[in-house]
Structures are given as C-alpha cells and as structure tokens.
Amino acid sequence: MVLTKLNALKAQNKSGFAVLADPDKIAPADMQHLARLCNDAGVDYLFMGGSLLMAHQMELCIQRFKSESDIPVVLFPGSPAQVTPYADALLYLSLISGRNPDLLIGQHVASAPQVKGSGLEVISTGYIIVDGGIQTTVSYMSNTTPIPADKPEIALCTAWAGELQGKHVIYLDSGSGARRPVSEEMIHKLSSNIDIPLIVGGGICTPDKVYQNCKAGANIVVVGNAIERDPLLIRDMAQATKAVNSYHEN
Ligand code: 1GP
Question: Which band of pLDDT confidence, cut at 50, 70 and 90, is reported for residue 128?
C-alpha cells in the first residue's frame, strides 16, 4: 500500500522521489523508456496528472509504463476526469489553501461513485498551493489565491487544519513550472510540526534542490518539468533522496 510506505518514511524521517508525468506532454510511446529510467534510478513513485487533459491517453500511458515497471503509479488528478482504475493509488485532493468550494467538496461529491468503484487506494490529501513567483496553471485553473511564499505560519496552520480534518498526507506545491520552489524554511516548518507525511513539488530543477528539500523534511519530492526537459536528471535526483537518507542514518 502506498500510504503505508509514506507513513513509514515519515516515521523514519526519510525521503523518497516521485517523477510526475503529465499525460498532455508525454506520449504513450515514451512511457517504456521512462519506466526503464525510473527502474534504474530507484524512483519510488510515478505520479500521473496535469491541470488540463487534452490528450486522452492517460490510460495507455499507464499501461505502457506498467509493462516495464513495478513502480506504483499514483494519480495526481487535475480533475475527476483523470481518475482511472489503471493506476495503483489516487491522491484525493482537497485544495485547502483555497476557498473554492468546488475544489474543497463539490467535485468530490460529483465524482464519489466513480472513485468508490475504482478500486484505487484512496489517499486523502490536503493540497496546499504556495506562490511560486509566477501564475501557474494550477493557480489559474483553480481560481484560488496561493499562500504567500514568505508566510510559513499560514502554511502551517493550513496543514494543521488538514491534519485535524483527517487528511492522510499534505502536498505542498508551488505549481508546475514555478519560478520559485517552496522554501526549505516552509518545508521544515511543516515537516517538524505535523504528524502526517509531507509531499513537496513545483519548480524543482536540480538534484541539489531535491537534496535540500529532503533535508528540510520532505518525505516525497516530486519533479515534472525539469525531467521532461532532461530525463537523465532522474538518476541524480533519486540519488539525492537516498543520500539524505544515509545522512540521517549516520
Ligand atoms: C506540480 O509538484 C508538481 O504540481 C511538479 O512541478 O513540473 O515544476 O516539477 P514541476
């Protein structure tokens, strides 16, 4: 189970690495190559999803990936249309940094029969968007205001509220293609004060940034854009999470 492993990472103060594939940007034909790169690098998860979904090839992408890899596929859906039983687990997102009722409960009600019937492992996720220095697709599409990047205390209260509501994990995201990733100060503020796993993503471009995020307490670091530009980064980024784990062990 994906959540069992995430909880173990949190309990042991460890980190893992997730590659985000946007089905609008990657072709099914590329998924086997991506799977082999992920296998070789020891990637922990493949996240699948995007804020749009114009190419309806997500199921085929997942099938192709799974034909080459046992790495769990976790849906990170931009809309209920992206929920598919071909994956292993679903980040069941509530956009708790926003005040858009549709993304707090509305879409959940509408998609409940589909989610219940999917057979997916459902991971209740408090999704927090932080200002990444540029208007990202997610902030525009969600019609919400991100948390200011220099207000870690607001992010913490939001994460606490999610935890108190029973969310399984918190996802702290500055949005895909963010100019400024979430700060280590904010990551540390949350990770040291919540008891549930912390996922971090948005605008992370270098293995060193992955390392710093993990050191600050991220349990999963997610990278999409940078890997689309240079898939060979997968190896060094996955390695960075492992280096932090050995640093904590010693
Ligand atoms: C976006 O956290 C993810 O929601 C990943 O962002 O594509 O910028 O790596 P990038």
Answer: very high
